[in-house]
Automatic annotation (TrEMBL):
Motif DGA/G: positions: 160-162
Keyword Lipid metabolism: yes
Record-linked PROSITE patterns: PNPLA
Domain PNPLA: 15-173
Active site: 48 (nucleophile), 160 (proton acceptor)
Motif GXGXXG positions after renumbering to this chain: 19-24
Segments carrying motif GXSXG: 46-50
Organism encoding this protein: Mucilaginibacter myungsuensis
Name of the featured protein: Patatin-like phospholipase family protein
GO terms for MF: hydrolase activity
GO biological-process terms attached to the record: lipid catabolic process
Coiled-coil region: none
Length: 270
């Protein structure tokens, strides 16, 4: 019996994906780098943009194909708030796009155990969605409060999971032997605020990073490109650049992290 082979087959590798708007495209680059070196995932958790990446990748789409879908459909433009409109908008216009590429619309038919973080607005608490209609769970996790109408699932109102947990590592703890985190919200030092949009983005990143350390501590490996700090959450034209930043950071991590080196070696022996 090949013990190394058995070890690789039974090792459960989890991947946690943060929210971060279009910066979340970097997750696809990270996934591309890791999977090309033989690393596969049994469990994936995500918030907001991380939930989108988790669902599409676990449905069997390659990271490069997901990037192309995002570019062709202008996905993040559809999720971008329009402050000129009155009242709350519906995010449900994105539902048909998800259904187009994931027609089975089911957690159970995904290639990995996927958990999506959202906030139950009525109960005022964080919830982890891992069954039911996949498209509604993804949209709930992306639903910016005050901009989009909450997503209603089984009589409960849900909004963006990033309000309470923008880096949902907890669903992987105890279920995985190795946890890899991909975070896209490094907070750079700035000397000026360029616009109202920049102000909102900066304030959001400060809030997100306030409790990020505790979530990072739950990971065995954290991949966090520092150069993403200069991109706003709605810089849709930079999607390809952001993908490549994630890819290069993934390759850098594989070369420099002992845990990832071990996983790559096990994959080669399998």
């Amino acid at each position: 019996m090949d013990l190394n082979n058995d070890l690789h087959k039974t090792k459960r590798i989890g991947l946690a994906l943060s929210g971060g708007g279009v910066r979340g495209v970097s997750h696809l680059g990270v996934i591309s780098a890791l999977t090309k070196h033989g690393i596969t995932f049994s469990h994936i958790s995500g918030t907001s943009a991380g939930a989108i990446a988790a669902a599409f990748f676990a449905a069997g789409l390659q990271p490069e194909d997901i990037l192309q879908i995002i570019k062709d459909s202008k996905l993040f433009r559809l999720l971008r708030p329009s402050f000129a409109r009155t009242g709350l908008m519906s995010i449900l216009n994105v539902r048909s796009l998800i259904n187009k590429y994931i027609p089975h619309n089911s957690f159970d038919k995904l290639n990995a155990h996927v958990t999506i973080a959202a906030v139950d607005l009525g109960l005022g608490k964080l919830v982890y969605l891992n069954d039911g209609e996949l498209d509604l769970a993804v949209l709930a996790s992306c639903c910016l409060p005050g901009i989009f109408r909450p997503i209603v699932i089984n009589g409960h109102m849900y909004v963006d999971g990033g309000i309470l947990n923008n880096f949902p590592v907890e669903p992987l703890v105890g279920n995985c032997d190795v946890i890899i985190g991909s975070s896209c919200n490094h907070l750079p030092i700035v000397n000026e605020i360029r616009s109202f949009g920049h102000l909102i983005d900066r304030a959001a990143m400060i809030a997100i990073n306030a409790n990020l350390g505790a979530h990072k501590d739950l990971c065995d490996v954290v991949i966090e490109p520092h150069s993403l700090g200069g991109y706003g959450i709605f810089d849709t034209e930079a999607a390809e650049e952001i993908f490549m930043i994630g890819y290069e950071e993934g390759l850098k991590a594989i070369k420099g992290n002992e845990v990832l080196k071990g996983l790559v070696e096990e994959a080669k022996q399998a």
